Amino acid sequence: MAKELPEDLVTEILVWLPVVSLLRFKCVCKSWYALITHQNFIRKHLLHNNNNSSALLLLQTSEDYVVSTFSYETLQVPLTQPVPPLYFEMRFGMDEFYVVGSCNGLVCLHANYGLYVVIWNPATKETKVVANSSLLRFPAYYRIDGIGFGFDAKTNDYKILNILSLYDDPDSIRNEKIVQTEVYSLSADSWRKGDSPPCFICSSLRGMDTYINGVASWEASVDDWKGILSFDMSDEVFLKTQLPGDVLNDSGRHFFVLNESIAMTVTICSEDDMYIIESSEVCFDIWLLLEVGVNDSWTRLFTIGPITGITRLLGSWKNDSIFFEKYYRQLVLYDPSTKEITDLKVGDGHIVSWQIITYTETLVSVKRGREVEEQDNC
Amino acid sequence: MANNGENPSPDVGGKTVKLKADDGEIFEVEEAVAMELQTVKSFFDDDGVSYDTVVPLLNVSSTALAKVIQYCRRAVELRAKSGDDEGANEKAREEREGLEAELVREESDEGIKELILAANYLNIKDMLSFLCRAVGDRIKNKSVEYVRRFFVLENDFSPEEEERTRNEVAWAFEGVDAD
């Protein structure tokens, strides 16, 4: 006699499935449609997948933008897809857009020029274009200092933070600068004016330097003070943390996430070279900030190197492994426990730029209200 | 899926527990193995229940129970092998994965569903987890029709509704295994 499984056991099976299968199985019957689109299941599936995060690689080649995802287990690139065609209308030139961040399977993209922001779920292929804020009227000139994207766990909402410098006169960029912020809420689909930050972003990325558990951070400074500016997506408050004195004279500082904390890498060149070239031997000192807002909680963890041929650190992944970029435009994965370096073969053709972020496949919807209990509307 | 009536005999020495399947067949099992079944553990956690009591497992067939006991016995052995040594742990983990793969490989769809129901009823978390994962692997590239047959589900969509739902994610139907 054929056995039927109760819904709770069906759920235990479905959480293992990739998003593409789940989307297809919405068609099995009405109860499965309701189950798969229900927020409870989406959250369960998300939590289940959080342990299996893959890496998302946004590649800009001379022809196109593509996105590849690859898994930690295989280090293969099983899936490459073009970025949704929506953005091809924005062709201004090189470095047209970049990834602000990724959270719960949603990826936030921003065009380099203007305030064109998109929230995208690569697994469900849904996109949402975020309407421009109407908060800025005067002055007419602005520069985006930083953009953050994250999740407010208290209200189950996704938010975008814009930090903008406004000028009366574009020619006197250094004078009369006012910094304003605004926060976008996906569930409200609207912007709201935010507090002024206590320091100024000086990060070369405009997307976040790090994003951890609802807190976005950037390298920042004000007068002689150098440190990290952080923004909590739930409380919508700014925090600042000063950098340790030891690193203030070093350049080549980059920030990334390690062990769910803000980590900083400082490039130290062994030789007295003015410029770091391919054959230079460099070391990377890795520091960890144990608690945001607590200046004393910076800890020097370990050093990588001396090593040659590495241009920059891109981010960390599972088991503390770290992505590096090697000369020229090659991606490698470094395992600090074994000190092994694995070359990852990515991208055909000439790569103009790339970005790598950790990413988890989810069913999270970008449309406001879609995840709410679905009535039997089939 | 033949039930060869295998009733795994317990090790010499050590306490044993008697488990009774739905058809009345009694399985005598080492205590350590029986305690892998949280349902059985809870049964004895109650005050005043003597270890001589036969545990009635009314929802589990003897076929399924035999397989569960066999799996749990080997899982207990493997757990005993691992310890602080990372090499030993790694080996034990690989062996356990081999054990899991072996268990599901030969099972028919009906058999695996029966094992899931048994593992759920007997409350064996690890077993339930890998069984569900195995079913997930079996169905993930399959068609909607295959899944309906597997789970014994009726298509209660109207043709228009089904068409509309399919079109929402037409790309998800590419590359599906032929039935």
Any overview of this molecule?
- The complex is a heterodimer of chains A (378) and B (179).
- Helices cover 9% and strands 45% of the residues of chain A.
- In chain A, the strands form six sheets. In chain A, strands 12, 13, 14, 15 and 16 form a five-stranded antiparallel beta sheet that branches. A four-stranded antiparallel beta sheet of chain A has the order 3-2-1-25, with no helix packed on it. In chain A, strands 4-5-6-7 form a four-stranded antiparallel beta sheet, with no helix packed on it.
- Chain B is mainly α and 179 residues long.
- A three-stranded mixed beta sheet of chain B has the order 2-1-3.
- Chain B is globular and about 65 Å long.
- The relative contact order of chain B is 0.11.
- The chains are: A mainly beta (378), B mainly alpha (179).
- Chains A and B meet through helix 1, helix 2 and helix 3 of A and helix 5, helix 6, helix 7 and helix 8 of B.
Can you describe this structure in just a few lines?
Helices cover 9% and strands 45% of the residues of chain A.
Rg measurement of chain B, Å: 20 Å
Instruction: Categorize the overall geometry of chain A.
Output: globular
**What distance lies between the first and last C-alpha atoms of chain A, to the nearest angstrom?**
31 Å
Structural class of chain B: mainly alpha
Helix content of chain A: under 10%
Oligomer: heterodimer
Q: Please provide the count of β strands of chain A.
A: 25
Which H/E pattern describes the elements of chain A? HHHHEEEEEEEEEEEEEEEEEEEEEEEEE
Q: State mean pLDDT of chain A (0 to 100 scale).
A: 82
How many helices of chain A? The count is 4
Largest sheet, strands/sense/barrel of chain A: 5 strands, antiparallel
